[in-house]
Amino acid sequence: MLEALRSGRLSLGPFVERFERELAEWLGVSDAVAVSSGTAGLHLGVRALGWGAGDEVLTSPFSFVASANCLLYEGARPTFCDVDPVTLNLDPKRAAGAVGPNTAGVLPVDILGYPAAMREFERLAAQHGLGLLQDACEALGARDAEGAAVGSRGVSAVFAFYANKQLTTGEGGMVVPADPDAAARMRSERNQGRAPDMGWVAHERVGFNYRLTELQAALGVAQLERARELLGEREAAANRYVERLRQSGGEPAGEGDPAALVLPCADRGRERRSWFVFAVRVPTGADRDAVVADLAQRGVESKAYMPCIHLLEPYRERFGHRRGELPVAEEASERLLALPFFPGMEEAQVERVCEALEEALRGNWT
Length: 366
Ligand SMILES: Cc1ncc(COP(=O)(O)O)c(C=O)c1O
Hints:
With 366 residues, this protein is an alpha/beta fold. It folds into 2 domains: 2-225, Aspartate Aminotransferase, domain 2 (3-Layer(aba) Sandwich); 227-363, Aspartate Aminotransferase, domain 1 (Alpha-Beta Complex), CATH 3.90.1150. Helices cover 39% and strands 12% of the residues. It contains 13 helices and 12 strands. It has a 7-stranded mixed sheet with strand order 1-7-6-5-4-2-3, sandwiched between helices. Strands 10-12-11 form a 3-stranded antiparallel sheet. It has a two-stranded parallel sheet with strand order 8-9. The relative contact order is 0.14. The mean pLDDT is 97. Bound molecules: pyridoxal-5'-phosphate (PLP). Pyridoxal-5'-phosphate binds at residues 37-39, 63-64, 66-67, 109, 135, 137-138, 160, 162, 173.
């Protein structure tokens, strides 16, 4: 970062190119386009696929709002399909069942860092001639069913580097484009519609300011050098939680009683989660919001995680969505609780959170 500062070139310089090149190498892909946020990357991804007015895109209701907002920016409509109860990712069977005459694409999300069922979505997309955009904002470092790095399948994929992400630039994002044409268009659109050889006030299309600064890119380069270490520290913290919470009766999703304390699902086959947050589902009948308040009183910060997108005010108003439409996602969103989680979290810190959680769960039933 000091090198970037001292160079006097704070934007549109060599660090952005270097960050793009090094992240692409790290993922094993030929190119990557740096942008100012994951949301900006998703927006450019939607534009590259040409989704717009009259198009419907199958996507997950259990996600951060940006994965659906990016469709609205271009006048496309999200068709929310329910999620898999174990992984909480968009369920490929539900998506297949929702294909209609206006369906133009699929936008799966690797939620909580667990890889989406891309093989199935690729098949569905090929069968119906649909576009595919992967929201991998929470999943840098995850591996898919073939054991390949998430984002390396040749499908457009978007990563995010906000402060809470596995790798951070403060704010930032990266798109792995599906092909060189898409990459060129994204590089132009992130820079106010300029082509690489154009002057400052020449524009070949309407674009945006979605540029990553040199300082952010320099931070990204430095973070990437430590990526394995950072991911390993997150995994170690998650393993500590899983081990400890099994003693409180918790079982990974898909393994134990689904009405009891449910931990994040274990990796299946060659799939590998990249740990983003550590979120548990409180037992059925426990008052999750009261548990959050109780934990806060015990000095432990936790978060209700996270509302279903179709039930957020703008989506209810615009599309008339109602509770009950997508029961698996809704139930997960009513029970999930994100616990304190950061790289290097020590055993004693995990123990303190788990003891507080046990006590909070004892006292807060509906
Ligand atoms: C699933 C998902 N999609 C999109 C985003 C948007 O990324 P950003 O906050 O960098 O715009 C995030 C991150 O917050 C996310 O978790």
